[in-house]
Amino acid sequence: MLNFLPARTYPLAACLGLSGSLLTGLPTLAQTAPTTLTVQVNKPGAPIAKTMYGLFFEDINFAADGGLYPELVKNKSFELDEHLLGWRGIRGAAALSTYTVSSQQPISATNNHFLRMTATTASPDAGFINEGFRGMGVKQGGEYTFSVYLRKGAGGVSGLNVTLEEGGPGAGPEAGPSGKALAHTRITGLTTEWKKYSVVLKSAGTAEKARLKLTLEGTGTLDLDVVSLFPKDTYKNRENGLRTDLVQLLKDMNPGFLRFPGGCIVEGRNLTERYQWKETIGDVASRVPLVNRWNMEFKHRSTPDYYQSFGLGFFEYFQLSEDIGAEPVPILNVGMACQFNSAEMAPIGGTAAAGPNAGSPHNHEDDDPTLETFIQDALDLIEFANGPASSPWGAKRVAMGHAAPFNLKYIGIGNEQWGPQYLERYEPFMKAVKAKYPNMNIVSSAGPSPDGELFDKATQRLRELKAEVIDEHYYAKPEWFRQNVGRYDNYPTTGTKIFAGEYAAQSVAIGSPDNKNSWDCAISEAAFMTGLERNADKVIMASYAPLFAHVDAWQWTPDMIWFDNLKAYGTPNYYVQKMYSTNPGTTMLPVQRAAGAKNGQDNLFSSATADDKTGEIIVKLVNYSPQARPVTIALQGVKKLGKAGRATVLASADLNAVNSLEQPQNVAPKEEPFKVSSPNVTYTLAPNSFTVLRIPGKR
């Protein structure tokens, strides 16, 4: 899928040219006069918002089911439109006399389909296999909780055999022959009423693409539903927890916020398929799945088996935000379906006309919602997050195990809508939220493009309405990011602030399946981000997008973190974001060059902050050049200068370099101490490098 190219790393010792001895033997450097960057330590600017660098999550590329949410069984409750999606009868179910997905006396009204199997002759092949999400990733010695609801029918079925075995999904209409067994158990004690059974399986081996086999023991009929295989190794060992390695990659970034659940996933292709947060809380087994709007969006990456189970729902998003120390930023539908699809809109007041999918079982609350429905959803969400146990929705949060409020401060109204239709819905929506929760910060949309007439009109109107935050998106070629480093230099310093909510350099073209997470893209984003940091009085939030992608099940590229069923790696873009988010500082410091040279001139980009917590000056430097470049950092007005600094360098001589599962550290940061002898720190930047210097010095 990705065309991985080898990279050559510039020697770190040569990067750290802080003294004459280190410059010895580099005549090309000696002949080049250092560029002086004056950091005005004694003229501090705006504070760096705690939310400055964060995360954007959307369920695209199998980011939730099959990714962050580690349930291994696909379509565990047979509730998808194609009821047996993910399930295959062993050898075409030849050993079963009959099988069907039934709704006769189901477990509940919301979980109203189950699999009924009947065998008239006992056979080890009388059953079904679940393929998982491009297979099931299991580790040797790993423990996995298997649970299922069973009900015995006519005949003498004495048990259910449960086997975790090697081998990916079977090709064609039949599940392939059995692979090596990794774990096995037998469930007995069946009754004629629905009963939940649970057992822990311990895998005898490691397999990236294992599968689950369920077979009848004896003859007769057996009903089964809510089939789950869940790793015990989850983040914080939670019963319905998240995949440990992926959460750790996020926590390691020290993110200021987590925006969720998207993205166009919020809107749906039509209003019936919109994301409804109330459908995603409470008992996991009762959450009704919904088609994922990305499943057939791109013909070149068609994924018809892509659904949302909502095992990862709004409660889990809030909990994840808390776990990684990020402010939760939920985005809610403003009463508009995706404008790239149906552009269906809920009317403002009055009675809604029947939409194209009225009566769908996926929309239990209101088949034909008006704008008031969406506004009430937002008000109820704030109560769910922040309300006391005595409030109706606060009580639901408490019942799920979180007595304390989540302390929600931000809420997004609409994802990426544009035009007058958005603004005429945004205004009453915003006023209703502010009337009940005047301190809530509202994130508003400037549309999918970073310029143009619609963008300008939306920005003007939202500023007139005193929106707290405007969400701007930009996907463009790498050179756009370097050329637009001064984008926010002339934005107003008062009033509405900016959320750079979705951005990523596209190596080929927007939406191209050939885009790569190349070093060229990442270093260009690093350059652009110096412009965000230099304008911390205007920009208070920024996040790369999308966040996750499964190597076997992606729809969009580039993406920040890639994974398979067992492993994950950060791209060069991930390391750029991490270097910013773990080195934010507390106060912006102006950086000047001689003769009024602008940031980015000669492909040298810079920003600086003071970290009042640690007593350091943080200087970020991007050298987008194939040559090493000496610079002098003049710390104007610095106090109590220390002697030992720390450099973090992310560099590659190959702008096409990428990381991979096989080479996850091909382009990765390297750290090394350096000496500081005066307020004029001389440093040599590696070719094609992003460098963060932490210099001990108080302002």
TrEMBL record:
Keyword tags: Glycoprotein, Glycosidase, Hydrolase, Signal
Family: Belongs to the glycosyl hydrolase 51 family.
Protein name (database record): non-reducing end alpha-L-arabinofuranosidase
GO terms for biological process, alphabetical: L-arabinose metabolic process
Annotated Pfam families: Alpha-L-AF_C, ASD1_dom
Organism of derivation: Hymenobacter swuensis DY53
A GO term for molecular function: alpha-L-arabinofuranosidase activity
EC number: 3.2.1.55
Entries under InterPro entries matching the protein: Alpha-L-AF_C, ASD1_cat, Galactose-bd-like_sf, GH, Glyco_hydro_b, Glycosyl_Hydrolase_51
Catalytic activity annotation: Hydrolysis of terminal non-reducing alpha-L-arabinofuranoside residues in alpha-L-arabinosides
Class of this enzyme: hydrolase
Alpha-L-arabinofuranosidase C-terminal domain residues: 501-689
Signal sequence region: 1-30
